[in-house]
Design brief:
This protein is 0% helix and 65% strand.
Length: 149
């Protein structure tokens, strides 16, 4: 249940995001962020809010561990939409977290994949990928490199 305890506290976040998603483009933009994560339910959940100062926006993640299914559900929202996006579900194995879910991008259905890796006490990496073909191929479109603040 305590898989996300590594994330608790404050972080500096280097973001690299693909400007044009699912188009074959290679137009990456980089921007800073700061994130603070708090525990819920003695490790069975957590929240984090991330500030993107150069973009003037914020993001929010709610993570909850489903005890019966033995998996995590991750929910994302941002200040631009105020909408809770569909969750991704998954687990950690050997220090790597993989989470998958169904979503849409510009009106078309996609699969989303969140990946946590490179986890140490002072660093971690998060990556988002989308698939427009049911998971046969994936395009990485956002990478966050976390360093302890």
């Amino acid at each position: 249940m305590n898989d996300f305890d590594f994330l608790l506290g404050s972080w500096n976040v280097a973001n690299r995001r693909l400007r044009t998603v699912l188009s074959g483009a290679d137009d990456w933009v980089e921007f800073p962020g700061t994130s603070t994560s708090r525990s819920l339910f003695d490790g069975g959940g957590n929240t984090d809010e991330i500030l993107f100062p150069t973009l003037g926006t914020r993001g929010f993640t709610l993570r909850l561990f489903d005890v019966e299914r033995q998996r995590w559900a991750l929910y994302w929202s941002n200040s631009q939409t105020g909408r809770l996006f569909p969750p991704v579900f998954g687990t950690f194995t050997d220090g790597r977290g993989d989470f998958y879910g169904d979503d849409e991008h510009e009106g078309r259905p996609i699969r989303a994949h969140y990946l946590w890796s490179g986890i140490t006490p002072d660093s971690a990496r998060w990556e988002q990928e989308f698939s427009a073909d049911g998971g046969r191929t994936w395009e990485s479109n956002w990478v966050m490199e976390f360093t302890r603040a």
